[in-house]
Amino acid sequence: MSGFGRVALIGIGLINGSLARVLRREGAAREIVACARRRATLDRALELGLCDRATTDPLEAVRGADLVVLGTPPAAVVPAAAAIAAGLADHAIVTDVGSIKAEIVRGMQGVLPGPDRFVGGHPVAGTEHSGPDAAFDTLFVKRRCILTPTGTTDADAVATVRRLWELTGAQVDLMTPEHHDKVLAITSHLPHLIAYTIVGTVADLEDREKTDVFKYAAGGFTDFTRIAGSDPTMWRDVFLQNKEAVLEMLGRFSEDLSALQRNIRYGEGDALFDLFTRTRAIRRGVVEAGQAYVRQADDPLADEP
Amino acid sequence: MSGFGRVALIGIGLINGSLARVLRREGAAREIVACARRRATLDRALELGLCDRATTDPLEAVRGADLVVLGTPPAAVVPAAAAIAAGLADHAIVTDVGSIKAEIVRGMQGVLPGPDRFVGGHPVAGTEHSGPDAAFDTLFVKRRCILTPTGTTDADAVATVRRLWELTGAQVDLMTPEHHDKVLAITSHLPHLIAYTIVGTVADLEDREKTDVFKYAAGGFTDFTRIAGSDPTMWRDVFLQNKEAVLEMLGRFSEDLSALQRNIRYGEGDALFDLFTRTRAIRRGVVEAGQAYVRQADDPLADEP
Question: What is the pTM for the complete model shown?
């Protein structure tokens, strides 16, 4: 079988919806069944052609499925696995797309009948938009997708999930769930936390000042608002479920910010200049690692209205 | 006279270089004279066709000039004005492009022979690149340019400088130097400060972790590195010269960050969700104010390699 047989998508928002579009385009699924809590979401998914069948019943959704993708917000991934467990075929492979991994991978042990056929996954891609209407089939092109198998994960299951993500155009990497959470805490979670904070600080300004902030946002603030426009439910879950690594990185950041604040207060220009020169070198490292190029060329955010 | 006569550009980097390209394209200057400290910079400016004449001598540069644009880093603007003062014609209009305004406008009083013909200016535009090679003639299109005349500034001087910036495609706004510094502290200076800090935090990570950060930077970190790749000299000056407003906004931000940190530590999901919902609304405000569109369509950063 070159395809993935019957695929059950639990949750049909930006990520699973985009995955559905890829499966459609490639003719890689014999049938796509979507499951969501709200009937209106499923009706829309059907209208958009994201699935062949749609049901609000998790057990019905996974019956006879060869591959199940849990596409819910992070905190709902393990509960969703619990809800489908009784309906899973023996050979079914289960994966997820949650932005945190350690807590999810641990949670699966007590919940799934065959936890070794679960492969933790995280496509590092997204836009500030959510829901089935936000889905598009190039979302994952040239982006990274991290898989986090453990020592006991079935090798065939890993190979299948890897094949799924490679089909989307993503570059697949393997690492432990714990390492994933640490790396993402600094590259993604902390930046989001900071963007949410500064945009929140602006929200508390007086109306007249706020109007001016909108007007002159191009000076740097725009980038932060874009990040801080991300899905509230998902990000609440991320911070709570990756608490330890986020607080650790936030602690380092706060110390560094205090030091910089002190440099400014006491007019220590040389210290500022040295730091800004070092950060410029880091920028070069990121550009050379190809991420900046990817962002410009392929980031869906670059096409937003 | 529809043009600007003889124009002297003190400093010939990204901003003044781009201004030169506009003046050339529009045939709006009878002669462009560039002045810089380093001969190599001037040779390059001549090679690029940014000026007709080039000199390292400020007095020679402004002799007979109708309009002088001080395009140095913020801390060098008032010293540059002092260096040209003795060479200025009586009718010469002087303006600058510094990112902070109150300290510069105050400084001109004791330095220029005719401080009323000085008009403080700040084009809110830029890229992470600097120097004459970074200049291009659409840098200011659809961007804001803020002018900060005082109660005694000559009305004709304001009209001339306004005409100059409108020629570049910028939208010109007038406000007091103090209001400018306050608005920019939150829209630009604080975002830069925070971006510098988080990128600096990464610079202190161990090598193996740093490599992974580069690899997965697309998760949010890339935006920060772009901001933190900005010119070190200019930004050192900005933070030191707008110290008061920056420290005030930084104080608010730090309080808000501590509150958020506490929410995470104690698992207060509702508080996180509420904040993230509010920031999403702010994002919509910025998009509606047109800045996000401008960024996508015209921001030169969108074309970086």
Answer: 0.81
